[in-house]
Specification:
444 residues; mainly alpha; Ammonium transporter fold; 64% helix; ammonia transport; transmembrane; NH4_transpt_AmtB-like_dom
Length: 444
Protein backbone atom coordinates (compact mmCIF):
# COMPACT_ATOMS: atom_id res chain seq x y z
CA UNK A 1 0.00 0.00 0.00
CA UNK A 2 1.18 3.53 -0.74
CA UNK A 3 2.41 5.50 2.26
CA UNK A 4 -0.05 8.15 3.47
CA UNK A 5 2.22 11.14 4.03
CA UNK A 6 -0.26 13.12 6.16
CA UNK A 7 -1.01 10.30 8.58
CA UNK A 8 2.65 9.32 8.68
CA UNK A 9 3.67 12.88 9.55
CA UNK A 10 1.08 12.96 12.34
CA UNK A 11 2.26 9.64 13.79
CA UNK A 12 5.91 10.72 13.64
CA UNK A 13 4.93 13.87 15.52
CA UNK A 14 2.88 11.86 18.01
CA UNK A 15 5.81 9.53 18.63
CA UNK A 16 8.01 12.47 19.54
CA UNK A 17 5.25 13.88 21.77
CA UNK A 18 4.87 10.60 23.66
CA UNK A 19 8.63 10.29 24.12
CA UNK A 20 8.65 13.80 25.61
CA UNK A 21 6.20 12.58 28.23
CA UNK A 22 8.90 10.54 29.97
CA UNK A 23 11.21 13.53 30.60
CA UNK A 24 8.02 15.37 31.60
CA UNK A 25 7.28 12.58 34.07
CA UNK A 26 10.85 12.94 35.37
CA UNK A 27 10.17 16.60 36.21
CA UNK A 28 6.76 15.75 37.69
CA UNK A 29 8.16 13.00 39.91
CA UNK A 30 11.42 14.85 40.56
CA UNK A 31 9.61 17.90 41.88
CA UNK A 32 7.45 15.75 44.14
CA UNK A 33 10.53 14.06 45.62
CA UNK A 34 12.73 15.40 48.40
CA UNK A 35 15.81 17.42 47.47
CA UNK A 36 18.19 14.62 48.38
CA UNK A 37 16.63 12.15 45.93
CA UNK A 38 15.48 14.26 42.97
CA UNK A 39 18.30 13.15 40.65
CA UNK A 40 17.70 9.48 41.35
CA UNK A 41 14.01 9.91 40.70
CA UNK A 42 14.63 11.59 37.36
CA UNK A 43 17.34 9.07 36.47
CA UNK A 44 14.89 6.20 36.88
CA UNK A 45 12.73 7.70 34.13
CA UNK A 46 15.64 8.36 31.79
CA UNK A 47 17.15 4.89 32.18
CA UNK A 48 13.74 3.45 31.29
CA UNK A 49 14.14 5.09 27.88
CA UNK A 50 17.59 3.56 27.50
CA UNK A 51 16.66 0.00 28.48
CA UNK A 52 13.18 -0.33 26.98
CA UNK A 53 14.09 1.17 23.60
CA UNK A 54 16.72 -1.54 23.11
CA UNK A 55 14.42 -4.30 24.34
CA UNK A 56 11.70 -3.09 21.98
CA UNK A 57 13.89 -3.39 18.90
CA UNK A 58 15.49 -6.71 19.82
CA UNK A 59 12.36 -8.66 20.74
CA UNK A 60 9.74 -6.46 22.44
CA UNK A 61 7.78 -5.35 19.40
CA UNK A 62 7.75 -8.87 17.99
CA UNK A 63 6.35 -10.43 21.16
CA UNK A 64 3.71 -7.74 21.57
CA UNK A 65 2.50 -7.20 18.00
CA UNK A 66 3.09 -10.32 15.90
CA UNK A 67 1.34 -13.65 15.60
CA UNK A 68 2.33 -16.13 18.29
CA UNK A 69 1.02 -19.27 16.62
CA UNK A 70 -0.59 -21.63 19.12
CA UNK A 71 -0.02 -19.11 21.92
CA UNK A 72 -1.38 -16.19 19.95
CA UNK A 73 -4.08 -15.34 22.49
CA UNK A 74 -1.40 -14.72 25.11
CA UNK A 75 1.87 -13.71 23.47
CA UNK A 76 3.34 -12.96 20.05
CA UNK A 77 6.19 -14.68 18.28
CA UNK A 78 9.79 -13.83 17.49
CA UNK A 79 9.42 -13.59 13.73
CA UNK A 80 10.26 -9.88 13.72
CA UNK A 81 13.02 -9.96 16.35
CA UNK A 82 15.59 -7.27 15.68
CA UNK A 83 13.14 -5.79 13.13
CA UNK A 84 15.22 -7.55 10.47
CA UNK A 85 12.13 -8.53 8.49
CA UNK A 86 10.55 -5.06 8.36
CA UNK A 87 11.32 -3.15 5.17
CA UNK A 88 11.55 0.62 5.39
CA UNK A 89 8.85 0.97 2.73
CA UNK A 90 6.45 -1.59 4.24
CA UNK A 91 3.14 -0.31 5.61
CA UNK A 92 0.76 -1.73 8.18
CA UNK A 93 -1.90 -4.17 6.97
CA UNK A 94 -4.76 -2.09 8.39
CA UNK A 95 -5.12 0.33 5.50
CA UNK A 96 -3.78 3.37 7.35
CA UNK A 97 -0.79 3.84 5.05
CA UNK A 98 1.53 4.10 8.05
CA UNK A 99 5.06 2.67 7.60
CA UNK A 100 5.54 -0.32 9.89
CA UNK A 101 8.68 1.12 11.46
CA UNK A 102 6.83 4.30 12.47
CA UNK A 103 4.27 2.19 14.30
CA UNK A 104 7.10 0.27 15.96
CA UNK A 105 8.62 3.51 17.23
CA UNK A 106 5.24 4.85 18.38
CA UNK A 107 4.53 1.77 20.45
CA UNK A 108 8.04 1.80 21.93
CA UNK A 109 7.30 5.11 23.60
CA UNK A 110 4.25 3.59 25.31
CA UNK A 111 6.33 0.77 26.77
CA UNK A 112 8.94 3.26 27.96
CA UNK A 113 6.62 5.48 29.95
CA UNK A 114 4.72 2.54 31.45
CA UNK A 115 7.89 1.34 33.15
CA UNK A 116 8.85 4.86 34.21
CA UNK A 117 5.46 5.39 35.87
CA UNK A 118 6.13 2.60 38.36
CA UNK A 119 9.20 4.32 39.78
CA UNK A 120 7.18 6.98 41.58
CA UNK A 121 5.92 4.44 44.12
CA UNK A 122 9.42 3.59 45.35
CA UNK A 123 11.05 7.01 45.52
CA UNK A 124 13.93 7.53 48.01
CA UNK A 125 14.68 3.87 48.68
CA UNK A 126 15.40 1.66 45.63
CA UNK A 127 18.85 0.59 44.47
CA UNK A 128 19.47 2.01 41.04
CA UNK A 129 21.08 -1.18 39.71
CA UNK A 130 18.14 -3.26 40.92
CA UNK A 131 15.77 -0.84 39.18
CA UNK A 132 17.62 -1.30 35.89
CA UNK A 133 17.37 -5.10 36.16
CA UNK A 134 13.72 -4.81 37.18
CA UNK A 135 13.01 -2.65 34.11
CA UNK A 136 14.43 -5.30 31.77
CA UNK A 137 12.54 -8.17 33.40
CA UNK A 138 9.25 -6.35 33.94
CA UNK A 139 8.82 -5.03 30.42
CA UNK A 140 9.52 -8.55 29.12
CA UNK A 141 7.19 -10.66 31.20
CA UNK A 142 4.52 -8.16 32.27
CA UNK A 143 4.18 -5.35 29.74
CA UNK A 144 4.64 -7.34 26.53
CA UNK A 145 2.00 -10.01 27.31
CA UNK A 146 -0.60 -7.46 28.44
CA UNK A 147 0.02 -5.27 25.37
CA UNK A 148 -0.52 -8.37 23.22
CA UNK A 149 -3.69 -9.35 25.09
CA UNK A 150 -5.28 -5.96 24.52
CA UNK A 151 -3.88 -4.53 21.28
CA UNK A 152 -2.99 -7.38 18.94
CA UNK A 153 -5.68 -8.28 16.40
CA UNK A 154 -5.35 -11.00 13.81
CA UNK A 155 -6.66 -10.95 10.24
CA UNK A 156 -10.00 -12.49 11.24
CA UNK A 157 -12.54 -11.40 13.83
CA UNK A 158 -11.78 -12.94 17.20
CA UNK A 159 -8.15 -13.67 16.32
CA UNK A 160 -5.52 -12.00 18.45
CA UNK A 161 -5.06 -11.17 22.11
CA UNK A 162 -7.63 -12.68 24.43
CA UNK A 163 -8.78 -9.36 25.98
CA UNK A 164 -9.13 -7.12 22.92
CA UNK A 165 -9.91 -9.54 20.11
CA UNK A 166 -11.37 -12.27 22.31
CA UNK A 167 -13.42 -10.63 25.06
CA UNK A 168 -13.98 -7.44 23.08
CA UNK A 169 -12.91 -4.98 25.78
CA UNK A 170 -12.01 -1.50 24.56
CA UNK A 171 -8.80 0.37 25.37
CA UNK A 172 -8.02 3.04 22.83
CA UNK A 173 -4.69 4.32 24.12
CA UNK A 174 -3.62 2.44 27.23
CA UNK A 175 -5.95 2.49 30.24
CA UNK A 176 -5.28 -1.18 30.97
CA UNK A 177 -1.98 -1.68 29.15
CA UNK A 178 -0.28 1.42 30.58
CA UNK A 179 -1.99 2.89 33.63
CA UNK A 180 -3.75 0.04 35.42
CA UNK A 181 -0.74 -2.12 34.62
CA UNK A 182 1.74 0.41 36.05
CA UNK A 183 -0.47 1.20 39.04
CA UNK A 184 -0.85 -2.44 40.06
CA UNK A 185 2.89 -2.98 39.64
CA UNK A 186 3.60 0.13 41.70
CA UNK A 187 1.50 -1.21 44.57
CA UNK A 188 3.32 -4.54 44.45
CA UNK A 189 6.77 -2.90 44.54
CA UNK A 190 5.76 -0.53 47.34
CA UNK A 191 4.82 -3.57 49.41
CA UNK A 192 8.05 -5.40 48.55
CA UNK A 193 10.33 -2.49 49.46
CA UNK A 194 8.37 -1.35 52.48
CA UNK A 195 7.93 2.12 53.93
CA UNK A 196 10.45 4.94 53.79
CA UNK A 197 12.22 5.63 57.06
CA UNK A 198 10.06 8.03 59.02
CA UNK A 199 6.92 7.59 56.93
CA UNK A 200 4.20 8.59 57.71
CA UNK A 201 5.30 10.39 60.90
CA UNK A 202 7.68 12.80 59.17
CA UNK A 203 6.45 15.23 56.51
CA UNK A 204 7.88 14.32 53.11
CA UNK A 205 6.72 17.24 51.04
CA UNK A 206 7.53 17.96 47.38
CA UNK A 207 10.77 19.94 47.25
CA UNK A 208 10.06 21.86 44.02
CA UNK A 209 6.47 22.62 43.03
CA UNK A 210 7.46 24.56 39.87
CA UNK A 211 9.08 21.31 38.66
CA UNK A 212 5.80 19.52 39.36
CA UNK A 213 3.81 22.05 37.32
CA UNK A 214 6.35 21.94 34.50
CA UNK A 215 6.17 18.16 34.44
CA UNK A 216 2.37 18.19 34.43
CA UNK A 217 2.39 20.68 31.55
CA UNK A 218 4.80 18.55 29.51
CA UNK A 219 2.70 15.47 30.20
CA UNK A 220 -0.48 17.22 29.07
CA UNK A 221 1.25 18.46 25.92
CA UNK A 222 2.69 15.05 25.08
CA UNK A 223 -0.57 13.28 25.90
CA UNK A 224 -2.19 14.65 22.74
CA UNK A 225 0.22 12.41 20.85
CA UNK A 226 -0.51 9.58 23.27
CA UNK A 227 -4.27 9.68 22.69
CA UNK A 228 -4.89 11.34 19.33
CA UNK A 229 -1.87 9.61 17.84
CA UNK A 230 -3.44 6.25 18.66
CA UNK A 231 -5.92 6.89 15.85
CA UNK A 232 -2.96 6.08 13.56
CA UNK A 233 -4.00 8.82 11.18
CA UNK A 234 -4.86 12.46 10.74
CA UNK A 235 -8.59 11.79 10.79
CA UNK A 236 -11.87 12.29 12.62
CA UNK A 237 -11.05 9.75 15.31
CA UNK A 238 -7.90 11.68 16.14
CA UNK A 239 -9.99 14.86 16.38
CA UNK A 240 -12.40 13.26 18.87
CA UNK A 241 -9.54 11.91 20.96
CA UNK A 242 -7.85 15.32 20.90
CA UNK A 243 -10.81 17.37 22.15
CA UNK A 244 -11.72 14.75 24.74
CA UNK A 245 -8.16 14.76 26.05
CA UNK A 246 -8.38 18.52 26.48
CA UNK A 247 -11.72 18.76 28.26
CA UNK A 248 -11.52 15.65 30.45
CA UNK A 249 -8.15 16.79 31.75
CA UNK A 250 -9.38 20.29 32.51
CA UNK A 251 -12.45 18.91 34.28
CA UNK A 252 -10.35 16.57 36.40
CA UNK A 253 -7.94 19.31 37.45
CA UNK A 254 -10.89 21.48 38.45
CA UNK A 255 -12.62 18.68 40.37
CA UNK A 256 -9.44 17.90 42.32
CA UNK A 257 -8.99 21.46 43.59
CA UNK A 258 -12.68 21.71 44.47
CA UNK A 259 -12.30 18.60 46.64
CA UNK A 260 -9.19 20.15 48.21
CA UNK A 261 -11.02 23.38 48.95
CA UNK A 262 -13.94 21.60 50.60
CA UNK A 263 -11.76 19.13 52.52
CA UNK A 264 -8.70 21.21 53.43
CA UNK A 265 -9.74 24.83 52.94
CA UNK A 266 -7.19 25.53 50.18
CA UNK A 267 -6.68 24.67 46.53
CA UNK A 268 -3.03 23.86 45.80
CA UNK A 269 -0.69 23.78 42.83
CA UNK A 270 0.17 20.18 43.66
CA UNK A 271 -3.54 19.43 43.62
CA UNK A 272 -4.26 20.86 40.20
CA UNK A 273 -1.14 19.19 38.75
CA UNK A 274 -2.21 15.86 40.22
CA UNK A 275 -5.77 16.37 38.96
CA UNK A 276 -4.51 17.08 35.47
CA UNK A 277 -2.60 13.80 35.45
CA UNK A 278 -5.59 11.92 36.87
CA UNK A 279 -7.76 13.28 34.05
CA UNK A 280 -5.20 12.34 31.43
CA UNK A 281 -5.02 8.83 32.84
CA UNK A 282 -8.80 8.34 32.98
CA UNK A 283 -9.55 9.63 29.49
CA UNK A 284 -6.82 7.54 27.86
CA UNK A 285 -8.80 4.32 27.30
CA UNK A 286 -12.04 6.17 26.51
CA UNK A 287 -10.92 9.18 24.46
CA UNK A 288 -12.12 7.90 21.07
CA UNK A 289 -15.32 6.24 22.28
CA UNK A 290 -17.18 9.00 24.16
CA UNK A 291 -18.60 12.44 23.36
CA UNK A 292 -16.95 15.64 24.63
CA UNK A 293 -19.77 16.03 27.15
CA UNK A 294 -19.08 12.49 28.28
CA UNK A 295 -15.41 13.40 28.59
CA UNK A 296 -16.29 16.25 30.96
CA UNK A 297 -18.30 13.86 33.13
CA UNK A 298 -15.46 11.34 33.09
CA UNK A 299 -12.93 14.01 34.05
CA UNK A 300 -15.02 15.35 36.93
CA UNK A 301 -15.48 11.85 38.34
CA UNK A 302 -11.80 10.96 37.94
CA UNK A 303 -10.53 14.18 39.50
CA UNK A 304 -12.80 13.93 42.54
CA UNK A 305 -12.32 10.20 43.15
CA UNK A 306 -8.53 10.27 42.69
CA UNK A 307 -8.25 13.27 45.03
CA UNK A 308 -9.86 11.09 47.69
CA UNK A 309 -8.04 7.90 46.69
CA UNK A 310 -4.53 9.23 47.32
CA UNK A 311 -5.25 9.18 51.06
CA UNK A 312 -5.87 5.42 51.00
CA UNK A 313 -2.16 4.77 51.54
CA UNK A 314 -2.39 6.31 55.01
CA UNK A 315 -5.43 4.24 55.92
CA UNK A 316 -4.10 0.96 54.48
CA UNK A 317 -0.45 1.48 55.41
CA UNK A 318 1.41 1.14 52.09
CA UNK A 319 4.00 3.78 51.20
CA UNK A 320 3.27 4.75 47.61
CA UNK A 321 5.68 7.69 47.60
CA UNK A 322 4.27 9.76 44.74
CA UNK A 323 0.68 8.44 44.53
CA UNK A 324 1.03 6.17 41.52
CA UNK A 325 -1.69 3.90 42.90
CA UNK A 326 -4.14 6.69 43.72
CA UNK A 327 -3.72 8.40 40.35
CA UNK A 328 -2.79 5.77 37.78
CA UNK A 329 -4.41 2.61 39.11
CA UNK A 330 -7.58 4.29 40.33
CA UNK A 331 -7.74 6.71 37.39
CA UNK A 332 -7.16 3.90 34.91
CA UNK A 333 -9.92 1.79 36.45
CA UNK A 334 -12.34 4.73 36.32
CA UNK A 335 -11.60 5.39 32.66
CA UNK A 336 -11.83 1.75 31.64
CA UNK A 337 -15.11 1.12 33.44
CA UNK A 338 -16.81 4.36 32.38
CA UNK A 339 -16.39 3.23 28.77
CA UNK A 340 -19.05 0.66 29.61
CA UNK A 341 -21.39 3.49 30.61
CA UNK A 342 -20.50 6.44 28.36
CA UNK A 343 -19.33 4.87 25.09
CA UNK A 344 -21.39 5.41 21.95
CA UNK A 345 -20.98 4.28 18.36
CA UNK A 346 -22.30 7.67 17.30
CA UNK A 347 -18.76 8.89 18.01
CA UNK A 348 -16.83 5.88 16.73
CA UNK A 349 -18.35 2.97 14.84
CA UNK A 350 -15.33 0.86 15.76
CA UNK A 351 -16.33 1.08 19.42
CA UNK A 352 -19.51 -0.10 21.08
CA UNK A 353 -22.56 1.31 22.84
CA UNK A 354 -22.37 1.59 26.60
CA UNK A 355 -25.18 1.57 29.11
CA UNK A 356 -26.35 5.14 28.47
CA UNK A 357 -26.38 4.61 24.70
CA UNK A 358 -28.71 1.63 24.96
CA UNK A 359 -26.06 -1.07 24.84
CA UNK A 360 -26.95 -2.64 28.17
CA UNK A 361 -24.37 -3.89 30.66
CA UNK A 362 -22.52 -6.14 28.23
CA UNK A 363 -19.71 -3.71 27.47
CA UNK A 364 -19.34 -2.82 31.14
CA UNK A 365 -18.85 -6.51 31.92
CA UNK A 366 -16.16 -6.81 29.25
CA UNK A 367 -14.37 -3.78 30.65
CA UNK A 368 -14.51 -5.24 34.14
CA UNK A 369 -12.91 -8.47 32.92
CA UNK A 370 -10.06 -6.48 31.35
CA UNK A 371 -9.54 -4.46 34.54
CA UNK A 372 -9.50 -7.46 36.88
CA UNK A 373 -7.23 -9.53 34.63
CA UNK A 374 -4.72 -6.71 34.23
CA UNK A 375 -4.59 -5.93 37.95
CA UNK A 376 -4.23 -9.57 38.95
CA UNK A 377 -1.51 -10.45 36.44
CA UNK A 378 0.51 -7.28 36.91
CA UNK A 379 0.35 -7.29 40.71
CA UNK A 380 1.17 -10.97 41.19
CA UNK A 381 4.00 -11.17 38.67
CA UNK A 382 5.51 -7.84 39.74
CA UNK A 383 5.45 -8.90 43.38
CA UNK A 384 7.32 -12.09 42.48
CA UNK A 385 9.89 -10.19 40.40
CA UNK A 386 10.43 -7.70 43.20
CA UNK A 387 10.80 -10.38 45.86
CA UNK A 388 13.30 -12.38 43.79
CA UNK A 389 15.42 -9.31 43.11
CA UNK A 390 15.26 -8.30 46.77
CA UNK A 391 16.39 -11.75 47.91
CA UNK A 392 19.19 -12.02 45.35
CA UNK A 393 20.76 -8.63 44.69
CA UNK A 394 18.83 -6.53 47.18
CA UNK A 395 16.27 -3.99 45.99
CA UNK A 396 16.33 -1.47 48.84
CA UNK A 397 19.24 0.76 49.82
CA UNK A 398 20.60 0.69 53.35
CA UNK A 399 19.04 2.79 56.10
CA UNK A 400 22.09 5.03 56.46
CA UNK A 401 22.20 5.69 52.73
CA UNK A 402 18.50 6.48 52.70
CA UNK A 403 18.95 9.05 55.43
CA UNK A 404 22.01 10.69 53.85
CA UNK A 405 20.37 10.83 50.44
CA UNK A 406 20.22 8.42 47.53
CA UNK A 407 21.53 10.97 45.01
CA UNK A 408 24.98 11.25 46.57
CA UNK A 409 25.14 7.52 47.31
CA UNK A 410 23.95 6.10 44.01
CA UNK A 411 25.07 8.78 41.57
CA UNK A 412 27.84 10.73 43.33
CA UNK A 413 25.92 13.93 42.57
CA UNK A 414 23.55 16.34 44.24
CA UNK A 415 20.88 18.41 42.55
CA UNK A 416 21.68 21.64 44.36
CA UNK A 417 24.90 23.36 45.45
CA UNK A 418 24.58 24.30 49.09
CA UNK A 419 28.11 25.73 49.28
CA UNK A 420 27.00 29.31 49.89
CA UNK A 421 25.14 28.19 52.99
CA UNK A 422 28.33 26.98 54.63
CA UNK A 423 30.68 29.93 54.80
CA UNK A 424 31.01 30.82 51.14
CA UNK A 425 30.20 34.54 51.26
CA UNK A 426 29.95 36.95 48.34
CA UNK A 427 32.95 36.58 46.11
CA UNK A 428 34.11 33.42 47.84
CA UNK A 429 35.01 30.49 45.65
CA UNK A 430 35.12 27.97 48.46
CA UNK A 431 32.47 25.27 48.52
CA UNK A 432 31.15 23.42 51.50
CA UNK A 433 32.51 19.95 52.19
CA UNK A 434 30.52 17.21 50.51
CA UNK A 435 29.39 15.89 53.86
CA UNK A 436 27.89 19.25 54.78
CA UNK A 437 25.90 19.42 51.56
CA UNK A 438 24.66 15.92 52.16
CA UNK A 439 23.63 16.86 55.69
CA UNK A 440 21.53 19.75 54.38
CA UNK A 441 19.90 17.48 51.81
CA UNK A 442 19.28 14.82 54.42
CA UNK A 443 17.27 17.36 56.36
CA UNK A 444 15.31 18.42 53.26
Amino acid sequence: MKIDSGSTAWLLTSTALVLLMTPGLAFFYGGMSRAKSVLNMMMMSFVSIAVVSMVWVVYGYSLAFTDGGGLNSFIGGLGDWGLVGLETSATLDDGTGIPSLVFVAFQATFAIITVALISGAIADRAKFGAWVVFTLIWVTIVYLPIAHWVWFFGPEDGEGGWIGAGVGALDFAGGTVVHINAGAAALALALVLGKRKGWPREPMRPHNLPFVLLGAGLLWFGWFGFNAGSALGANGTAAVAFINTLVATGAAGFAWIVVEKIRDGSSTTLGIASGVVAGLVAVTPACAFITPLGAIVLGLVAGAVCALAVSLKYKLGYDDSLDVVGVHLVGGVIGALLIGILATTAVNEAGADGLLAGGGVGLLGKQAIAVVATIAYSFIVTFIIGKVLDLTMGFRIGEEDEVSGIDSVAHAETAYDFGSIHGGGAGSSSAAPVGSAQKVEADA
